[in-house]
Write a structure and sequence with these properties.
The relative contact order is 0.12. The protein has helices at residues 47-59, 129-133, 186-194, 219-232, 245-256, 275-278, 291-313; strands spanning 3-13, 19-25, 34-35, 37-40, 69-78, 84-93, 106-112, 138-144, 151-157, 169-173, 198-199, 235-239, 260-266, 283-288. The chain is α/β, with parallel strands linked by helices and 314 residues long.
Length: 314
């Protein structure tokens, strides 16, 4: 599975009654549906550069990169379609130059934000678009069926601030089905990670979580969602104190994808760390004695990674 990145931009006219510009897809995948403007990110583009280019190509409007506001990230799981899995970066913009024009791909039309044509849109839109148009950030995952039209399962989260979307994304991997003996350490670890990144799997830290199957999530959804999360994440953090087939699989996948990896291990655990982890120079192993020791050592590595990120951007 290869995660593809794309953009989706909504132009919002802030009148007394706000309106949003949607485009009717004229051909190809999604034909006959209203949607925002966007498409795949080219190999030499940033997210915002792609959003500006796609908008220009599809409706003729010119956008300034600094006017775009990132409002969300949507993961679309389509295992039965050649597109596979797609991570869509959602933007809104309130300034532009020009008048919308019909293109080879899209027919533009303004809609009241209060009266969106959900019956002629993708089935997931009604679950998140209104939220975004109200200025509230969102992250969500949607699994589609074999017909690539039917929404089979979904998961939606609401970041507290828009700024959270700018932080490095972190996949937090812990034992769930294999045992939760060390679950009391997970919440402090997540809190430490949140100082430097956005945790994609924050709910794994819930001490009452025995299995996500109890929440009605299918194995198919969990497999595709977590696979996509690991592909999308910037950093990967695992607690390996409790042996787990799932955690081992996820670490191997993260390594294959060249992610930065931290593995934490409780020193007094009766289970030692596998040489496949401790002997791997590409993995940072942290042995901890207690909660304070774990969070301090973890934050020290994450702070170093944060500084490296800032250096690369500059």
């Amino acid at each position: 599975m290869h995660l593809k990145h794309a953009t989706l931009t909504f132009l919002v006219d802030q009148q007394e009654e706000p309106t949003v510009l949607l485009g009717m897809k004229k051909r190809g995948f999604g034909e006959g549906k209203w949607n925002g403007y966007g498409g795949k990110i080219l190999y030499n583009e940033t997210e915002i550069e792609a959003a500006v280019r796609e908008t220009k190509e599809e409706n003729g409007l010119e956008l300034q990169p600094t006017d775009l506001q990132k409002m969300g990230e949507l993961t679309f799981l389509m295992p039965h379609h050649p597109m596979g899995t797609q991570l869509v970066h959602v933007y809104t913009v309130k300034k532009w130059r020009g008048e919308p024009q019909e293109s080879d791909e899209m027919i533009p039309h303004w809609f009241s934000v209060k009266e969106l044509p959900f019956e002629k849109m993708w089935p997931d839109d009604k679950h998140w678009l209104q939220h975004v148009l109200e200025g509230k950030p969102v992250t969500a995952t949607f699994l589609f069926g074999p017909d690539n039209q039917t929404l089979k399962a979904m998961e939606i989260h609401y970041p507290k601030t828009i700024e959270e979307l700018q932080k490095p994304s972190v996949y937090f991997s812990v034992s769930i089905s294999g045992g939760r003996e060390h679950a009391h350490y997970y919440k402090p670890l997540v809190e430490a990670i949140r100082k430097y990144g956005r945790v994609l799997t924050e709910h794994f830290a819930d001490e009452n979580l025995l299995t996500e199957r109890e929440e009605g999530k299918t194995d198919e959804f969990l497999y595709w969602r977590d696979h996509a999360y690991i592909e999308a994440c910037d950093w990967f953090v695992a607690d390996v104190s409790q042996p787990s087939f799932g955690v081992g699989y996820e670490i191997a996948l993260a390594e294959q994808l060249h992610k930065k990896i931290i593995c934490l291990h409780y020193k007094n655990s009766p289970k030692s760390v596998s040489p496949m982890i401790s002997g791997n120079y590409r993995t940072t192993v942290i042995e901890y004695e207690n909660e304070k020791d774990a969070t301090q050592k973890l934050e020290s590595v994450l702070k170093k990674w944060e500084l490296e990120n800032q250096h690369q951007k500059n």
